Known about the structure:
Blueprint: H1 2-16, E1 31-45, E2 56-67, E3 72-88, E4 91-107, E5 110-111, E6 120-121, E7 123-136, E8 139-153, E9 158-169, E10 194-208
Parallel strand pairs: 1-3, 5-6
Antiparallel strand pairs: 1-2, 1-10, 2-3, 3-4, 4-7, 7-8, 8-9, 9-10
Amino acid sequence: MRYIKLLVAALILSLSTYSVSAQTDYKWKKYYMEAGILGGGSYYLGDANKIPFNYMLPTGGLFLKYKFDGRWEAKLQSTVGQAGIGEINGVMRNTTFLDFALLAEFNFFNYASMRLEPGSSRVTPYIFAGLGMSLFNKESAPIVPFGLGMKWYIADRLNLGLYWSTQKVIYNDNFDLIDNPLKLKKGFWINNDWYSTLAVYFSVNFWEVCPTCIDGRGNKKRGR
């Protein structure tokens, strides 16, 4: 766990050295799409565990994005992994999950835009939220994923990022293999099961925005 925290701190520090105001002479192209892979760890919070980042286990995934502009992106993502539950009746348990989510991302800076565009930056913090479905313990349940991260445009087609997400499991209280221990009336939010992921990702941009579709300030023209 100590090594994960050190890795995260080092990545955040390296990204923070790229100031928004310190623009370089990059002349990258603009793209509509982005595809990538991710890897990290997941953990669970609920009836059996109350400590964040406790019992983290490996997680991986894939995603595909559509870039509306430098601020807004839509992402289809799938992750698979394990989340450590903790000790139940003297036995250490974990849950294997596979989830799918449709997410909306908002970049705080005009990310990966041409340098003449207002607020253009090679690095930006971002937030995201969406809806999805998770499969676990031979069951399925809707999830509400949301989180935050940092992303860095390291080359014309390449991105590197770090994010933390949490998934609220709804209409199901069996992610931790302890189904409704308090005997509550179940509903949309009435259960204690959440699982979170801390991951880094690497992605590639494709489907270039044609030069004739961009105006003098790097903005997409209507009608493409």
